Amino acid sequence: MKKSILRKYAKLTAKVGANVQKGQDVVIYANVDQELLVSYIVEECYRLGARKVMVEWGSDIVTRLVYKKETIKVLSEVTPWVIEKQKYYCKELPAMIYVDSDDPDGLKGVSQKKLAEVAKNRYPILKPYRDERDNKYQWTIIGAPSKAWAKKVFPELPAGKAMEKLWEAILYTSRVTDDPIKAWDEHNKDLEKRTKFLNSLNLDYLHYQSSNGTDFKVWLSENVLWEAGGEKTLGSNIFFNPNIPTEECFTSPIKGKAEGKVVATKPLSYQGQLIDNFSIVFKDGKAVEVHAEKNEALLKEMIAMDEGAAYLGECALVPYDSPINNLGILFFNTLYDENCCCHLALGMGFTNLVKNYQNYTNEQLHEMGINDSAIHVDFMIGSKDLNITGYTKDGKAVPIFKNGNWAF
Amino acid sequence: MKKSILRKYAKLTAKVGANVQKGQDVVIYANVDQELLVSYIVEECYRLGARKVMVEWGSDIVTRLVYKKETIKVLSEVTPWVIEKQKYYCKELPAMIYVDSDDPDGLKGVSQKKLAEVAKNRYPILKPYRDERDNKYQWTIIGAPSKAWAKKVFPELPAGKAMEKLWEAILYTSRVTDDPIKAWDEHNKDLEKRTKFLNSLNLDYLHYQSSNGTDFKVWLSENVLWEAGGEKTLGSNIFFNPNIPTEECFTSPIKGKAEGKVVATKPLSYQGQLIDNFSIVFKDGKAVEVHAEKNEALLKEMIAMDEGAAYLGECALVPYDSPINNLGILFFNTLYDENCCCHLALGMGFTNLVKNYQNYTNEQLHEMGINDSAIHVDFMIGSKDLNITGYTKDGKAVPIFKNGNWAF
């Protein structure tokens, strides 16, 4: 990868993604194979006036060993300094930058039950801190190829060529053009127009229909907004882009109000394994029946993870002709794959989509219909002939999607 | 590097170096370029029964940026979770494994004054924790080539070849033979014999003389032992090897009792810079006059770092015909270079060399003549014709070194 392009990507990350402020602390999470890119991001953060930049490195290989060899009890321990760190984050609100280069098969061979158990044990300990600083700080996720990831996406290519191809795909979908800052400015404006229109409709429910068997209704709350692209921090009002790339307009549906069957149109990569050719039937908002040709048991485990894991947290609209879908690549990574077409997510919803959410407690926001769970897993249901009709509170039908793409 | 040899090196590190115990926690410090070796060490730790293994990754490039861009005030901050971690280490006494692949020029371009200031500010905050767990846990340092380090040692070779040569040198000097465990067992036994003899002499002082101008006397305490190779943890009595490789028999001299001039026989790599062709004159144990053809100012800054930085903390005997010196390589890394020939160290001495040191407070041990400082910097004074004569308390002269090598 050319260093000049990497530098542009780093600048986009720090400026448009995290929008690092003068005097602010920054934490960067990355795997050990991303030293060069991370160093460029660190430089960009200082250029924007960061006070202190901290990098938290990880390693796929070591993480897999740790999960394989340690007991659930040891893995579930939250050491005192991790709590101390969370407290510091709540106090100082550093911007968080996640550079994702994880091997999609990184945790292959680790018992799914063990992973779920550990996540379940750690979640309530860390949740109060996550809740406390929720929406108050800027964060962004970007991707960067690792050899393992590139070989997973392009198994037929030699490692070097696969890395090159994955870099190309990442930079293309992330709009790292000659002037990425300008490209993102325009992109954000376009997304804003669409959400404005969706919010103006005051929709009661959406009806999804496709020839693949999808026939599904999901109810929306008038108190919950559609959002896309960037968002603003609570209090300090700093605009940032949590995901690079992003193509979706999304909202959180009402927990407990969804009916019918959805048929997945892409495989789902979950905890290092692929769940494929699956469908889910919802009744009273809950996933009550799942079928999968591949890894059905894993899918069942997933939705049994906790009470909220069988309910929907997100409902997102992405045209079938999105840049990512046009590439025709399965990235085995949600950041990209979720932006390829329409999707739903099981698990945690977005409390910050509730109008004036800052005036409510988290408990109140959940009572208002925003789902809560330790998981948030997107799965794709966009298809070439997907039609979505919105029904407004006053009974009007509005075409939202026609043949897979925006109807407006 | 062949994976099978790397695995032997990893086993030597975990078993002979840190001697990881069943049920023990382990912390591994390494740079991001050492993922494979680190993963092998992690595996070996689990094989030995480690309860939990944590890896703390670093990056030369990021560290340099951080030191360049952040203020002394910010760099001097010890965040609350670092203190929390220290407390945990004091309580749990994890074994510590340091994999050193640092670029010897890693901090080039960073103000030396800034580095010294930051170290001085952080030291008193962290010292109580270091003191509390001192001697109670196993630790070991090993080396592993990075590209930058290899190119520094072999500037004339292309990067790949330089890496290969540095691996060879490291594995040779670390005795990574067909059976490294056995080789280290024999080596430790040999070193033990020599220290037993030195301790039996009850030496009053050593007199160093060489044709290069060295003429120097240093006084020893009857309460302070000579040590070499491995040592045992306090309380749990676990034998471990802090350094891989190690060739030296060393002791801590009495603070305030050294006279004469020593001429360095190798350049000293300090904070990314090379101090070369230097000599130091001691009076009442203190470095009162220093000369250096290269970086004299840096040397002066070093000994002015704190009160103890101008006094000696170590006096070590290594034959001129050591494996490391025979290789004829300057490693630009103390772990290797200090094992090439006789040396002294400015700064912190070893309180654990005092007989029954566990019965004294740190303050008492320092009052007994063990120097204290934030630094501990070795510099080489071994030469081809170095003679060292020991004078016993009862006035007998005993030849210790003759023409650069052991006289006994």
What does this structure look like?
The structure is a homodimer of 408-residue chains. The mean pLDDT of chain A is 95. In chain A, β3, α6 (112-133) and β4 (139-143) form a beta-alpha-beta unit. Helices cover 36% and strands 26% of the residues of chain A. In chain A, the strands form 4 sheets. In chain A, strands 5, 6, 11, 12, 13, 14, 18, 19 and 20 form a 9-stranded antiparallel beta sheet that branches. Chain A is globular, with a radius of gyration of 21 Å. The first copy, chain A, contains 13 helices and 20 strands. Chain A has 408 residues and is α+β, with helices and mostly antiparallel strands.
List descriptors:
homodimer, 408 residues, 36% helix, globular
Short description:
By secondary structure, chain A is an alpha+beta fold. Chain A contains 13 helices and 20 strands.
Summarize the SSE layout with pairings:
The structure is a homodimer of 408-residue chains.
Chain A: H1 3-17, E1 25-31, H2 35-47, E2 52-58, H3 60-69, H4 72-76, H5 80-92, E3 95-100, H6 112-133, E4 139-143, H7 147-153, H8 159-173, H9 180-201, E5 203-209, E6 215-219, E7 227-228, E8 231-232, E9 239-240, E10 249-251, E11 258-263, E12 268-270, E13 273-283, E14 286-294, H10 296-303, E15 312-317, H11 323-327, H12 334-337, E16 343-347, H13 362-367, E17 376-380, E18 387-392, E19 397-402, E20 405-406
Parallel strand pairs in A: 1-2, 1-3, 3-4
Antiparallel strand pairs in A: 5-6, 5-18, 6-11, 7-10, 8-9, 10-15, 11-13, 12-13, 13-14, 15-16, 16-17, 18-19, 19-20
Helix pairs in contact in A: 1-2, 5-6, 7-8
